[in-house]
């Protein structure tokens, strides 16, 4: 396989040789955000999870939402990178190393959000000491760590291949294994929700393929934004035809994702049973802003991707950003929507640890959103994002990620 690009660095270049004041400032800002996040996490650890708005009736919140979101970003980036190599197809202008590095960064972020959601770092080892291999949660933990290791091995193999120390056949095998694992990690994450039949919004066989399609949407969008930004600062030279190819793929992935969403909505509403209440909650209820932002934003993104006159660099960035925001909205409405419909027939004591708005009664608690993150949670989310930005920027600065001529 060959990826023809306009690039000047030699394959033997030992480092990225990329820097400048702007990158250094970005690294410093990311490091500061990381430290702030660690301080806020310390506050959460000292005061307990009661400081968050997660409760017994809605035990997952923004941390698990971000976990789902970044697993998708990660899997999508690795899929975009590994498909051309695995099947001997023409790639996307030598951007595979950058796509894999963004994938590794997003995987680290996903793991980071799981850690802060556990309530304490020392509980991580309990996942393995007291693991229940019959639980989809444990399946996801195992697959996620294997996926991270495979991503690192894939990046290493790619670098060694450029140096002539790993054969094309070996790299193709690693690419195929990484591709399978990328699909599997998102399928297992989907099964965490779809195998819980007590929550109507989660219990659907479409969840796994829907998660994979979402991963392709936001992963492609993230790689496209990264490539446009890196091309603008001179990190790589890439023909516009490759961006057009990615844009068309993004538009197709968005349409598939919306199609799955439409199938799920029709299945829920047509029998006029409990599912009709879920659709009403999405279309005109508390989650309506997230629903319509996803649908309208993704539709606009698809139009931009398919109309040649709109495929300028700015237009492609807007399309990718709208697609990514749309998938985040879907993740949030999926998680919160699963708790928005009470499934215990109000069989719970009204206490501050049971429901977020316990003073107004159960009806009042479910009138608006059952969960909104506190400022502490949002601060920790930003801190973890800072860590991800730090990892990404340090990789661009010190790793040989620049494309080279094959």
Description of the structure:
With about 400 residues, the chain is mostly helical. It has helices at about 20-45, 60-85, 95-115, 125-130, 135-160, 170-195, 205-230, 240-270, 275-285, 290-305, 315-340, 360-365, 375-400. The longest helix has 30 residues, at about 240-270. It is globular, with a radius of gyration of 22 Å. The termini are close together. The model is unreliable at about 1-15 (pLDDT under 50).
Main β-sheet: number of strands, strand sense, barrel status?
none
Please report which band the strand proportion falls in: under 5%, 5-15%, 15-25%, 25-35%, 35-45% or over 45%: under 5%
Mean pLDDT: 85
DSSP strand count = 0
Radius of gyration: 22 Å
Number of helices: 13
What is the chain-wise order of helices and strands? Answer: HHHHHHHHHHHHH
Shape, please?
Answer: globular
Helix-and-strand structural type: mainly alpha
Q: Point out poorly predicted stretches.
A: 1-17
Task: Report the end-to-end length measured between terminal Cα atoms.
Answer: 9 Å
Bin the helical content: 55-70%
Features:
406 residues, mainly alpha, 13 helices, disordered N terminus, globular
Summed up:
It contains 13 helices and no strands. It is mostly helical.
SSE diagram, text form:
Layout: H1 21-47, H2 62-86, H3 96-117, H4 124-129, H5 136-162, H6 168-194, H7 207-232, H8 240-269, H9 274-284, H10 288-306, H11 313-340, H12 361-365, H13 375-398
């Amino acid at each position: 396989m060959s990826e023809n690009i306009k690039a000047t660095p030699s394959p033997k270049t030992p480092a990225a040789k990329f820097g400048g004041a702007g990158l250094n400032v970005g690294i410093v800002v990311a490091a500061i955000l990381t430290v702030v996040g660690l301080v806020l996490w310390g506050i959460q650890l000292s005061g307990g999870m009661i400081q968050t708005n997660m409760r017994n009736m809605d035990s997952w919140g923004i941390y698990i939402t971000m976990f789902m979101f970044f697993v998708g970003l990660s899997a999508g980036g690795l899929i975009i990178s590994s498909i051309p190599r695995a099947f001997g197809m023409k790639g996307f202008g030598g951007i595979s190393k950058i796509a894999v590095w963004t994938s590794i960064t997003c995987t680290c972020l996903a793991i980071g959000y799981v850690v802060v959601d556990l309530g304490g770092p020392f509980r991580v080892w309990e996942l393995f000491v007291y693991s229940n291999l019959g639980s989809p949660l444990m399946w996801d933990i195992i697959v996620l760590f294997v996926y991270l290791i495979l991503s690192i091995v894939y990046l290493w193999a790619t670098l060694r291949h450029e140096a002539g120390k790993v054969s094309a056949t070996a790299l193709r095998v690693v690419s195929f294994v990484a591709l399978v694992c990328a699909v599997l990690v998102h399928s297992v994450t989907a099964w965490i929700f779809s195998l819980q039949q007590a929550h109507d919004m989660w219990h659907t066989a479409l969840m796994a393929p829907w998660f994979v399609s979402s991963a392709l949407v936001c992963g492609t969008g993230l790689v496209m934004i990264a490539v446009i930004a890196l091309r603008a600062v001179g990190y790589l030279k890439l023909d516009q035809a490759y961006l057009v190819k990615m844009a068309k793929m993004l538009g197709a992935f968005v349409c598939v994702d919306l199609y799955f969403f439409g199938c799920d909505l029709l299945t829920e509403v047509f029998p006029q049973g409990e599912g009709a209440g879920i659709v009403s909650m999405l279309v005109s209820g508390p989650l309506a802003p997230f629903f319509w932002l996803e649908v309208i934003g993704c539709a606009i993104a698809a139009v931009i991707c398919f109309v040649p006159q709109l495929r300028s660099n700015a237009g492609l960035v807007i399309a990718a950003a709208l697609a990514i925001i749309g998938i985040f909205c879907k993740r949030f409405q999926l998680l919160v929507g699963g708790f928005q419909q009470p499934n215990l027939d109000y069989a719970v004591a009204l206490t501050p640890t049971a429901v977020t708005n316990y003073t107004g009664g159960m009806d009042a608690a479910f009138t608006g959103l059952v969960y909104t993150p506190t400022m502490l949670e949002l601060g920790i989310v930003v801190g973890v994002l800072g860590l991800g930005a730090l990892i990404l920027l340090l990789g661009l600065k010190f790793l040989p990620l620049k494309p080279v001529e094959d």
